[in-house]
């Protein structure tokens, strides 16, 4: 598969211990959107304490299916999910 992807930039401004701003600059061909179910490493998830999910990954296939697979593995192994 010959696929061109671009990077996504995230900027975080910490104003104080209780206040911050996050700016995400995304392009249409964000690499996370190409994550597919076969890329999910079940063994890695099983050894984790938390599974951090990006809302961007839920936007379209195949990354949506990859996230759902990862969440299923996490739930079956008592790994906490964070969105």
Task: Map the helices and strands.
Elements: E1 9-16, E2 19-25, H1 42-46, E3 50-52, H2 63-76, E4 80-82
What order do the SSEs take from the amino end to the carboxyl end, as H and E? EEHEHE
Q: Can you count the helices?
A: 2
* Class based on secondary structure composition and strand pairing: alpha+beta
For the largest beta-sheet, the strand count, sense and barrel status come to: 2 strands, antiparallel
For the structure shown, list the relevant keywords.
83 residues; 23% helix; kinase; ATP binding; 5-dehydro-2-deoxygluconokinase activity; Myo_inos_IolC-like_sf; Ribokinase-like
Model description:
The strands form two sheets. The protein has a two-stranded antiparallel ribbon. It contains two helices and four strands, in the order ββαβαβ. It has helices spanning 42-46, 63-76; strands at residues 9-16, 19-25, 50-52, 80-82. The longest helix is centred in the last third of the chain and has 14 residues, at 63-76. The protein has one domain (9-82). The chain is α+β, with helices and mostly antiparallel strands. 23% of the residues lie in helices and 25% in strands. It is an enzyme of class 2 (transferase).
